Amino acid sequence: MLRTTFQVLAWTSILAIVIITDGPIGLRPVTHLPGSVERFFALLTVATLFTLAYPNRISFIGLSLVLAVFVIEFAQVASFGRHARLRDAGVKVLGVFAGLAVGCFLRAGINLIRARFSGDPKALPKAANQS
After folding, report:
1. Inter-residue contact 92 to 39 (CB < 8 Å)
2. Which residue ranges run through the membrane (predicted)?
3. Mean pLDDT (whole number) for 113-121
4. Would 128 be classed as within a structural domain?
């Protein structure tokens, strides 16, 4: 159930990024944060959700999201009033890598909690099993 929730959230978030990035400027939310901060945290969130949704596909997720960043960024060339910038893509790629790390960390925590409450001492990592 939790994995399905993460999958729905991950795909919804990437769809929202595409619409906000390449859609009409009026659809873009206003946060009063610098654009680089918005871009970084948007892609950090997307990468984290995909990592939690598909924990055995981290490399594929990373490569796919980096490719998606460049495709989405440079699709702005076709959008009236929008502009593609390599710097913006770079900030988004950093967000992807940070999101992969956050997702792996959270997944490890989820696995540890599940192992702790499963009642099976062999399911716990050795360090946690020695208590």
Report:
1. yes
2. 6-25, 60-81, 93-113
3. 78
4. no
